[in-house]
Backbone:
């Protein structure tokens, strides 16, 4: 029987450990937002969802990269490590979620209704001159 859930000794690669994923995802979130020139508050709920999914997938990939770097991609018998299928699945999911995030951000930036609502909000929130 293995170590109890939540026990750090139970973690092999960490790609399923919330404790390991969360700080990496937070760093990736900051980096992605900085690279695309947005703040989290600039995204709607759907955009934040796409962003969260992407950064969590990339964090898991980082953890698996580290694990595979230490144990090698192949076992002694030449078979791929068990984590390689998981890695490929995560890489594909990250690619697709990034594409979805990009599409969503582009569509939101080119939406005239959103632009009008932003303008009206800014006008409503601006101090009035007497």
Residues:
């Amino acid at each position: 029987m293995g170590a109890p859930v939540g026990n750090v000794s139970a973690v092999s690669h960490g790609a399923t450990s919330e404790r390991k994923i969360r700080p990496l995802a937070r760093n990736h979130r900051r980096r992605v937002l900085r690279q695309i020139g947005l703040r989290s508050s600039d995204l709607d709920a759907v955009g934040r969802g796409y962003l969260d999914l992407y950064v969590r997938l990339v964090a898991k990939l980082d953890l698996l990269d580290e694990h595979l770097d230490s144990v090698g991609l192949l076992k002694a018998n030449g078979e791929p490590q068990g984590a390689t299928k998981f890695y490929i699945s995560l890489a594909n999911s990250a690619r697709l979620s990034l594409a979805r995030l990009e599409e969503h951000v582009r569509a939101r930036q080119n939406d005239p209704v959103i632009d009008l609502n932003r303008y009206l909000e800014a006008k409503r929130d601006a101090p009035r001159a007497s």
Remarks:
- Helices lie at 18-36, 45-71, 83-109, 112-125.
- The chain has four helices and no strands.
- Confidence is low (pLDDT under 50) at residues 5-11.
